[in-house]
From TrEMBL:
GO terms for cellular component: bacterial-type flagellum
One of the Pfam families matching this protein, by short name: Flagellin_N
Protein name: Flagellar hook-length control protein FliK
GO MF entry, a single one: structural molecule activity
Xref: InterPro entries: Flagellin (IPR001492), Flagellin_N (IPR001029)
The keyword RNA-binding appears for this protein: no
Domain annotation Flagellin N-terminal: ranges: 14-141
Keyword annotations from UniProtKB, A to Z: Cell projection, Cilium, Flagellum
Organism of origin: hydrothermal vent metagenome
Length: 678
């Protein structure tokens, strides 16, 4: 076979030259660019790994940025919480100082002023911001969380940092948790506010005193035994209500009365649901044995007819209003029906209720007025979880549905009484009925109107499905005098819209019904809302209450941060060691009880502080982990895509030598001829 020049070129030079040139080009390109490949087709595996690692580096960068931002907020919150805790400790020290009994009026005024300054500092801390974003406003970071009057204006929104794939960590502490949070380990404790004196022997009544000592007598004849009646009502920790009329003669002891109160709450030989005792002022203290319930409530009034004409034993408690609440007036006068008040308030009785002896009235009271606003004082609390009701909460979720027809509100009647925004009287009955009984309605001036649901077709709402919003719509229509033109769904809706132009009825942050008049800065309206059976001790107790002359709450699982502080300051201002309905603010809890409240508040803040500390530590750990992962991933990416300069340089040198050797070989072979083979 003849070897031609062309065959020789292709077999020895052309193929090797192209291959080596390509390799030299690739190596030079790698050294110049610093990357092993420029395009995906050059090495699919390297390209795929690089894209994956680039995505991980981008994600880690986002995680790092998010975590750093969250950590700054959590760390700042941690610092603020330390200051809040220290400030509360200072406040508690001042209260203990105020309670020691050695301070004169001037000293107590000075302590009250210092407490006010402390509260101002706490409000400033509560409104701390970073870069214009408030720490304690929840997700409403542009809203100042605490108003000048101590009301919370934020929400319960959580802010989360992105700390990894499908992994988030909360970094804020909302004011809803801090200022309105709940301590499930606290047992509610309530107290009457009238100091009970021994009317026979002088001094303060004690548990071993007799009922005669508590209720008095108009003569010294102990052989004549008087009949004493006590009208007791309240709410148990499970939300069920009770009403009881009990009789004791003069020889019974006060401890017998306390034991009976305990039985009304459900105490028996095997079950102990509450502790009932007297404090050092002879006031009745009821302490829940169940943790985490804010429902406990109490009211009581006593009566004795020293003439034994039966006036003290009544069915309608309003009939006791014919007596006298001042013992000396009874003893020295002609009216010998003595009515002993145990709980008093400044609340006005509604039309038709006892109004001379206000301690008789429990829940038939007018909402408190402040300019254009009327506000109730009873939080609406859901039985199942102790949360505050909102507009969409069903009334049946709050009310005691064990009364009447058990398991339902069907047959319950509420009274809505007062004056509308024009100053005209109104008297409304709200009938809660099941759908099978025609549904719920309200009646005013002889006209009845269905309370329509939103179903299709529109019908009167079932009693157990009626919400607070539907109840508040009725209140708003009545009090603004915007009633439906006819009993149709369309007219009902139009009346609601018209009423909202004149006023707004809503639930406050702490579950209390408030009415705000938009037509006047000093409303003429009054509102009283209560169970129709309230005054009658033969009928079932009120299944729900809205505004009550009730016992004072000393301890409560629910926190109202600045209200608790205001109560403490007021106690020092009024120089009350214990509650005393006969001076100053009748509802003032007193310094000793304020100390206990501030202690609970301290514990709550410390728990919140621990929560923030845990968030901060978690974010710090996450940040450190992310930084390490970022470094590791960048290093791994470098090993995958970046050129190893030393290795590439060695390869370049090898390829260059190979190329030169090939050229030398080709040159030498090209010089050969037939002469070389002869």
């Amino acid at each position: 076979m003849r070897v031609t020049s062309s065959m020789y070129y292709h077999s020895l030079y052309a193929t090797n030259n192209s291959k080596i040139n390509n390799e030299l080009f690739d190596v030079n390109k790698q050294i110049a660019s610093g990357s092993k490949i420029q395009y995906g087709y050059e090495n699919v595996t390297t390209f795929t790994d690089t894209m994956r690692l680039d995505n991980e580096i981008t994600t880690l960068g986002q995680v790092k940025k998010s975590t750093e931002s969250g950590y700054k907020v959590a760390n700042q919150t941690d610092s603020v919480m330390s200051e809040v805790s220290d400030t509360l400790d200072k406040m508690k020290t001042l209260l203990i100082q105020a309670a020691n009994g050695t301070n004169d009026s001037i000293s107590l005024e000075a302590i009250a002023d210092e407490l006010k300054g402390t509260e101002k500092n706490l409000k400033s801390l509560a409104n701390t911001s970073i870069n214009g974003k408030y720490l304690f406003s929840g997700s409403k970071t542009d809203t100042k969380p605490i108003s000048d009057d101590g009301k919370y204006q934020g929400n319960d929104g959580k802010l989360n940092a992105f700390v990894g794939a499908n992994n988030q960590q909360q970094y804020n502490l909302s004011g809803a948790d801090l200022f309105l949070g709940e301590e499930r380990d606290i047992k509610k404790e309530i107290t009457s506010n009238v100091i009970n004196k021994d009317l026979i022997n002088g001094g303060i009544i004690k548990a071993d005193s007799t009922i005669r000592d508590l209720m008095g007598d108009i003569d010294d004849d102990k052989d004549t035994v008087n009949k004493n009646y006590f009208y007791i009502r309240g709410t148990k920790s499970d939300g069920s209500t009770f009403k009881d009329k009990v009789e004791f003669d003069d020889t019974a002891s006060v401890s017998d009365l306390l034991e009976q109160i305990g039985k009304d709450y459900g105490n028996d030989g095997d079950t102990h649901l509450v502790d009932v005792e007297l404090n050092s002022n002879g006031q009745i203290v009821v302490r829940d044995k169940q943790k985490g319930s804010s429902k406990l409530d109490f009211h009581m009034v006593g009566a004795v007819d020293f003439d034994d004409t039966g006036r003290a034993s009544v069915e309608d408690i309003d009939d006791l209003d014919s007596g006298e609440s001042d013992y000396n007036t009874v003893k020295n006068g002609d009216n010998h029906l003595f009515v002993h008040e145990f709980v008093k308030s400044q609340l006005d009785s509604t039309a038709g209720a006892a109004n001379k002896i206000k301690g008789i009235v429990y829940d038939r009271t007018e909402f408190s007025k402040n300019g254009a606003t009327l506000a109730s004082n009873m939080p609406q609390i859901v039985r199942s979880d102790n949360s505050f009701a909102n507009a969409s909460t069903k009334i049946s979720e709050v009310a005691d549905i064990s009364k009447g027809t058990a398991g339902t509100l069907d047959g319950t009647a509420l009274k809505l009484v007062g004056k509308d925004i024009n100053g005209n009287d109104y008297d409304v009955q709200i009938d809660l009925k099941s759908a099978s009984n025609g549904g719920s309605s309200f009646t005013i001036g002889g006209n009845s109107y269905d309370i329509f649901n939103m179903d299709t077709p529109r019908t009167a709402v079932d009693a157990d499905k009626m919400t607070y919003q539907q109840l508040m719509d009725v209140v708003n229509m009545v009090v603004t005098d915007n009633l439906p033109a006819s009993n149709t769904a369309d007219d009902y809706d139009r009346a609601i819209v018209a009423s909202r132009s004149d006023a707004k009825t809503e639930l406050s942050y702490d579950g209390k019904i408030t009415f705000s008049d938009k037509t006047s800065a000093n409303t003429k309206a009054t509102v009283a809302l209560y169970d129709k059976n309230s005054d009658n001790f033969i009928k079932d107790p009120s299944v729900i209450t809205f505004n009550t002359n009730n016992a004072l709450a000393i301890r409560d699982p629910k926190t109202d941060f600045f209200k608790m502080i205001d109560d403490a300051i007021l106690a020092v201002q009024e120089q009350k060691t214990y509650p005393d309905a006969n001076s100053g603010d009748m509802r003032n809890i007193g310094i000793e009880n304020a100390i206990e409240k501030i202690s609970d508040l301290e514990n709550h803040v410390n728990r919140m502080h621990a929560k923030v500390g845990a968030q901060s530590n978690t974010l710090d750990t996450s940040l450190q982990r992310t930084q390490l992962l970022e470094i590791s991933t960048v290093s791994l990416r470098s090993s995958v895509i970046d050129t190893d300069v030393a290795e590439a340089s060695l390869k370049l040198k090898q390829l260059t030598l190979n190329y030169q050797a090939m050229l030398s070989s080709v040159g030498k072979v090209s010089k050969l001829s037939l002469v070389n083979y002869i």
